[in-house]
Amino acid sequence: MVDHKDGDESNGTPSNLRWLCKGCNTRTGLAMARAGRGVRTHQYNPGARTLAEYAEAAAQHTRGAHDAGGAIIHETPKEKRQEFAREIWRRRRARGTDRRT
Q: Which residue from 19, 20, 57, 100 lies 20 to 30 Å from 64 (Cα-Cα)?
């Protein structure tokens, strides 16, 4: 994994970066956190960016399972999920498939 020597994840200068195994990176991060050093950046997971990505994730997801499709759906912001739902229903109405059989 890539480690930030000074503990500041926003400092991506080459002299601040080094390779560590996952265990060493975790131990280093915990030691810095205990010492009150370092700055953790907020992780940004955009989820599905397009209706196609969202539909593919939904098709792959099994309800109640912790799978990749569910992770993408969960990471998609609520407003974007609502936008996708409106578009899906608009398309279903246009095709006449919005009614239960």
A: 100
